[in-house]
Design a protein that fits this description.
The complex is a heterodimer.
Chain A lengths: L3 H5 L1 H33 L4 H16 L2 H11 L9 H26 L3 H9 L4 H31 L11 H12 L2 H30 L6
Helix pairs in contact in A: 2-3, 2-5, 2-7, 2-8, 3-5, 4-5, 5-7, 6-7, 7-9, 8-9
Chain B lengths: L8 E10 L2 E11 L4 E6 L5 H8 L7 E6 L2 E2 L2 E4 L2 E4 L2 H10 E4 L11 H11 L5 H14 L15 H13 L5 E5 L7 H16 L3 E5 L3 H6 L3 E6 L2 E6 L1 H6 L4 H11 L1
Parallel strand pairs in B: 3-10, 3-11, 8-9, 9-10
Antiparallel strand pairs in B: 1-2, 1-4, 4-5, 6-7, 11-12
Helix pairs in contact in B: 3-4, 3-5, 4-5, 5-6
Classes of the chains: A mainly alpha, B alpha/beta.
Bound molecules: adenosine-5'-diphosphate and magnesium ion.
The site of adenosine-5'-diphosphate has 12 residues of chain B, from strand 2 and helix 1.
Keywords (chain A): Amino-acid transport, Cell membrane, Membrane, Transmembrane, Transmembrane helix, Transport
Organism (chain A): Alloyangia pacifica
Main location (chain A): membrane
Chain lengths: 218, 258
């Protein structure tokens, strides 16, 4: 093995690492932030919003992430919306991730017993307060594990951005390999990079779970 | 305090259908200020549904609920009678607090936080003032030493007493109790019943669905016997329970005293 290929191209790899971090990070944050209201709407009291979010979830999960990515990068310009490659990638990946996130969040919200809503309503709490103070704090424990697991998929899925001219980790690696014919070294480094990124994500999950856990309970 | 000298709560012709079942078929009764009204009746006779209608957790299909002489749950809108919006019911609900059979404490909050939640968040009262009052309420239900405990760390009897303190923290005019001792082991019922007895002797207005015949006989001022969604018999518990005039109540009394 010859690690020169890595050290010689350290700048390129680092930059690609930064791009992956940026795309995956933005996608994760946006998709979680968007998924919450959609999950609430999905089982909410307003019929129109229920249908809207159901259709959104269905379309986003039924369509390949790559198709959504192509749509935001190649499709949107056709209707006059021009996004640079990175924002287009973030938009496409976010659409896809949001569809999944909202289902995990929804499942967690539904797992809170309806008696909790009832008790909160009996105390005169309005619906948004019930969500914020009573339902979400309980649901979050159920939501965290499957949601984080989906977010590690999102992290890895950011490699799709390489298909729309973004130089992220996987794409940069492929380009390097075809130039240098040293796949082993390059793939090991890229693998380690994803390991670090997703390791951080899982560490964050444990931090949140610890923070949420009650004394004397698991 | 009230503008009228009439009953605190008056219910007339209350009807409610759930699914295909007519659960309430015209319920009438009144509750005076400071009175303890017990509601008894076989399982499925509509007692819980009735209580839920009283604080409008569910909306009756028909009939009227008068609170201090004024109708709640409906508004006049251009001469038309319209159901009130949820947010217009919130203020009413804080005046008529409910305690549930299964406690329904918020599991992610300590006993003290459970009690403080509504006064701070709903009534926007200052946290320090609420804390002092919540501590006093926990003392009243004899749980000062459990203020920092989470629901899963408490016995059922303790949880139910916290739930009573939580309901009292709203400074309600009346309390609704839905079989609050039914989920408790026999040795834990007493501590909850004694708190309820204290409240009654302090003049708290209470409507209590209960199968504790001792409580009904000795604490309640009046008893209402529900049967198939109607008030079948009502009156002074000592008379009504000793000399039931209907076959339904006779059968019920026999079933609970066995
Ligand atoms: N959400 C519901 N949908 C349909 N039927 C219901 C619902 N809730 C209660 N019921 C029915 O209404 C009847 C009365 O219930 P409930 O008020 O809980 O009686 P009780 O408290 O006296 O036991 C029961 O037969 C029950 O099955
Ligand atoms: Mg019941």
């Amino acid at each position: 093995m010859n690690w020169n290929v890595v050290t010689d191209n350290a700048g390129l790899l680092l930059e690609a690492f930064g791009t992956t971090l940026w795309i995956a990070g933005a996608t994760i944050v946006l998709s979680v932030v968007l998924a919450f209201p959609l999950a609430v709407m999905r089982d909410g009291p307003i019929r129109g919003l229920r249908i809207l979010s159901a259709v959104f979830s269905w379309v986003m999960r039924a369509t390949p992430a790559l198709t959504l990515l192509f749509l935001t990068y190649f499709g949107l310009p056709q209707v006059g919306i021009y996004l640079a490659a990175v924002p287009a990638a973030i938009a496409g990946l976010t659409l896809s991730a949001t569809g999944y996130n909202m289902e995990y969040i929804r499942a967690g919200l539904r797992a809170v017993p309806s008696t909790q809503y009832e008790a909160a309503r009996a105390l005169g709490m309005p619906f948004p307060m019930i969500l914020r103070r009573v339902i979400v704090p309980q649901a979050i424990r159920t939501i965290m594990p499957p949601l984080t697991s989906n977010l590690t998929l999102v992290m890895k899925g950011s490699s799709l951005a390489g298909m729309v001219a973004v130089t992220e980790l996987t794409g940069a690696g492929m380009a390097l390999i075809s130039r240098t014919y040293q796949p082993f070294e390059i793939l090991i480094v890229i693998g380690l990079a994803y390991l670090i990124l997703n390791g951080a994500l899982i560490w964050l999950q444990h931090r949140v779970e610890n923070w949420l856990s009650l004394p004397g309970q698991g | 305090m009230s503008a009228t000298d009439g009953p605190l709560l008056e219910v007339a012709g209350l009807e409610k259908t759930l699914g295909t079942q007519r659960v309430l078929r015209g319920v009438d009764f009144t509750v005076n200020r400071g009175e303890v009204l017990a509601i008894i009746g076989a399982s499925g006779s509509g007692k819980s549904t009735l209580l839920r209608c009283l604080n409008l957790l569910i909306r009756p299909d028909n009939g009227r609920i008068l609170w201090q002489g004024r109708e709640v749950g409906w508004v006049q809108n251009g001469g038309k009678r319209m159901p009130a919006r949820e947010r217009d019911l919130l203020g009413y609900r804080t005046q008529i607090s409910m305690v549930f059979q299964s406690f329904n404490l918020f599991p992610h909050m300590t006993a003290l936080q459970n009690v403080m939640e509504a006064p701070v968040m709903v009534m926007k009262r200052p946290r320090d003032e609420v804390r002092a009052e919540a501590e006093a309420l926990l003392e009243k239900v004899r749980l000062s030493h459990r203020a920092g405990a989470y629901p899963h760390q408490m016995s059922g009897g303790e949880q139910q007493r916290v739930a009573i303190a939580r309901a009292l923290a709203m400074r309600p005019e009346a309390l609704l109790f839905d079989e609050v001792t039914s989920a408790l082991d026999p040795e834990l019922k007493g501590e909850v019943l004694s708190v309820m007895r204290d409240l009654a002797s302090e003049g708290m207005t209470m409507v209590s669905v209960s199968h504790e015949m001792g409580f009904v006989r000795n604490v309640a001022d009046r008893v209402v016997f529900m049967h198939k969604g109607r008030v079948c018999e009502a009156g002074d518990p000592k008379d009504v329970l000793a000399n039931p005039s209907t076959a339904e109540l006779q059968a019920f009394v026999r079933s609970v005293t066995d």
